[in-house]
Amino acid sequence: MAGRGAGPEFVEALARGLDVLACFGPAARTMSLSEVAAAAGLARPTARRLLLTLTELGYVRSDGGGFALTPRVLDLGMAYVGSLGLWDVARPHLEELVARTGESSSMAQLDGSDIVYVARVSVPKLIALRVEIGTRFPAVQTSQGKVLLAAVPPEELAGVLAQPSRAGLPPYIGTTEEQLREELTGVRARGWALADEELAPGVRSVAVPVRDGTGAVRAAMNVTVHAAETSADRLLGEHLPLLLRTAGEVSADWARWQSRPHVELPRRDAGTA
């Protein structure tokens, strides 16, 4: 891959770093050092240095000897969300949900022990937390995080929770791991999670999973309200049914989008065309 630049200003090191990021995809979400080196056409020491640099910058994470992308590649032109097609699918549904509830709605994905916001339709509200694309919060303190953690295999949960949060918030001491596991069991059983002023005073939200074409939970969608304006009973009684239906529609549309008849052929070399 690298080594094809011809211009005098071509930066080979940058090209190699981008080659490493490009190695990952739907069929290679987690790769070993050897696999990355082979896919990028790099020597193992070079691939290792690039991966460690990308890990330090937050674009790649290391887990159990393998490497995977993080949602921080959103910073590189929203490539992460665009590669999934999720925003194009979800946007009209989110807008309709917000129009019906009068409350903000967001989608997030899990990155280590944090959630990262990847889509949002908002309305002006006097809520203390500012949320935008790329914002991250500790997963255990959010309804979306609980939904996403509930989808993590139980034997892997401790490892996920052990990863340091990069949200920049004080450590959360409100729930033990045993209590969290019990709560996540309930989330899996009922299909939704509530966070009642756990992230910040006045912030109340409910979230449900969004699934891909295989049925795997790939994101979580929420409705957020101000606790002084909307009770938990109203949130669950009025907004949750609409949220569940919307998430189901997004999941169904996403599954159809993923199964579209589309094949990408490898580029032919000009000399063999």
List the helices and strands and how they pair.
Layout: H1 12-23, E1 30-32, H2 33-40, H3 44-57, E2 60-63, E3 66-69, H4 79-84, H5 86-101, E4 104-111, E5 114-121, E6 136-138, H6 143-150, H7 154-162, H8 177-190, E7 193-196, E8 203-211, E9 217-226, H9 232-258
Antiparallel strand pairs: 1-3, 2-3, 4-5, 4-9, 5-6, 7-8, 8-9
Helix pairs in contact: 1-2, 2-3, 5-9, 6-8
What does this structure look like?
With 273 residues, the protein is an alpha+beta fold. The chain folds into 2 domains: 58 residues, Winged helix-like DNA-binding domain superfamily/Winged helix DNA-binding domain (Arc Repressor Mutant, subunit A, Orthogonal Bundle), CATH 1.10.10.10; 180 residues, GAF domain (Beta-Lactamase). Helices cover 42% and strands 19% of the residues. It is built from 9 helices and 9 strands. It has a 6-stranded antiparallel β-sheet with strand order 6-5-4-9-8-7. A hairpin with a 2-residue loop joins strand 4 and strand 5. Helix 2 crosses helix 3. The chain is globular and about 60 Å long. The two termini are 20 Å apart. The mean pLDDT is 85.
Keywords:
single chain; 273 residues; alpha+beta; Arc Repressor Mutant, subunit A; Beta-Lactamase; 2 domains; 6-stranded antiparallel sheet; 3-stranded antiparallel sheet; 9 helices; 9 strands
Concise structural overview:
With 273 residues, this protein is an alpha+beta fold.
For the biggest sheet, the summary is: 6 strands, antiparallel
Order of helices and strands: HEHHEEHHEEEHHHEEEH
How many separate structural domains?
Answer: 2
Name the helicity range: 40-55%
The low-confidence runs, each spanning 5 or more residues with pLDDT under 50, are none
As an assembly, this protein is single chain
CATH class of the largest domain: Alpha Beta
What would you call the structural class? alpha+beta
CATH homologous superfamily annotation of the largest domain: GAF domain
Number of strands: 9
Q: Do you know the CATH architecture of the largest domain?
A: 2-Layer Sandwich
Radius of gyration: 20 Å
Strand content: 15-25%
